[in-house]
Design a protein that fits this description.
By secondary structure, this protein is an all-alpha fold. About 65% of the residues lie in helices and about 0% in strands.
């Protein structure tokens, strides 16, 4: 697996948050909530989503727990 490119990862995180906050700025007035609160919640949600995507990618390299330990047979 390639090493993590931290600057690129941070840039993607920032732009994801900006895009979500923009959606909050547009959707906030339609829903009747404080615009900046809606933008903040949307940006925070995008950050949580991004962390979930990174975690999924990082965890995908681990072996399947059902495979057992290397060298030991697993009962079918």
């Amino acid at each position: 697996m390639a090493p993590v490119n931290v600057p690129q990862t941070l840039e993607r995180l920032v732009w994801t948050a900006v895009a979500a906050a923009g959606g909050g700025l547009i959707g906030g007035p339609l829903l009747g909530v404080e615009v900046w609160q809606a933008a903040g919640v949307a940006a925070l949600a995008s950050v949580v989503n991004y962390v979930t995507l990174v975690a999924r990618k990082r965890l995908s390299i681990l072996p399947d727990p059902g495979d057992g330990l290397p060298g030991l047979e697993v009962d079918p």
